[in-house]
Amino acid sequence: MGMLLVSALLFSACANSGSTMQSSSDDREFVYITNQGEASVNVIDVATNTIATVVDLKEFGYDEGAKPHHIAVEPDGAHWYVSLISAGHVLKFTRDNELVGYAEFEVPGLLELDPSSNKLFVGRSMAAVNPPQRIGMIDTDTFEVEEIEVFLPRPHALAVSPNGRFVYSASLAENRMIAVDLETGDSEFQILDGPIHTLVDLQIAPDGKTMVAGAQMTGKFFFFDAEDQSGVPIETILDVDAAPWHPVFNREGTRAYFANKMADKVTILNMETREVEAVIEGNGLAQPHGTALSSDGRFLYVSNQNMNMAYQAEDGSNPGTVVVIDTEAAEIVKVIEVGVLPSGAAGRPTW
After folding, report:
1. Can you give the pTM of this predicted structure?
2. Buried b vs exposed e over 229-250: b needs ≥16 C-beta within 10 Å?
3. Among 101, 97, 99, which Cα is nearest to 20's?
4. Does the domain formed by 1-20+27-149 have CATH 2.130.10.10?
5. pLDDT tens profile 78-137
6. Of 51, 161, 292, 306, which has the fewest beta carbons less than 10 angstroms from its beta carbon?
7. Chain centroid to CA 315
């Protein structure tokens, strides 16, 4: 099956018009968490596990309903990207939180950087009922956008092979995935058995051999063979706690971590045995959503939307939280109170 590339406009870079720029952060490592409900992004200093700054997108001309959703960070941390669902933009910031460019894209959702090039892939938001059956490929230097036909309703889950040749997407509405060969334009589908699983996200291990995905509706966790990079046949399926969301691998690929959104838990997987190693629950875990690791793998950062009000602050309010987990001890070491509806989380990629 061929791949249709739909041309889009070229969007120019724009100067920083906000006041969130800070003095040079050099090579400090940050983790980024969106506040989807109030158009801001928390920037967490990994060295101290404190909020270094909050980037207020309203200072860049966006309104409170812009809905920043997902984050991608370059390997050296020099730039980071955020998707704005309702504003229909993907923004590029420097490490010092200077806005240097944007691209237009209808209801953008998940973001995934190509490890081998300057391409950024973007899926469609889960909030979109009937979005185009295409994903985006953005040149991060020019902000030119190409749209890739994936022939799937509600294409949300997203992954890119380590060599950048294949991009993968999965439907929220059907049990279908697609692998698109960006060199040849050919596509290959994978069909999952059973009821509608609703795969939330795809993630490929650092060695490129295994791809994983969590199923929101059935509580299944899938392991796919990604070594040949095309058909991704299913190897293993685990039953886990409800709504496994947004897996992330450590740098060695020996562990995977994901939130269980409807169970207020976090699961640690042993990738060598493909079994659950630990399940973490406790104060601050309240509708956990996104996950990010520090580059050394020591800390796991989990965003918590807390719309179920399972977490209460000392003043009686129910803010969103970022829970910091010590991965070796498998225990919560800090709860950081943040803004409304924290969602996407990202640090430097493990690859």
Report:
1. 0.93
2. bbebeeeebbebbebbbbbbbb
3. 97
4. yes
5. 999 999 999 999 999 999 999 999 999 999 999 999 999 999 999 999 999 999 999 999
6. 51
7. 31
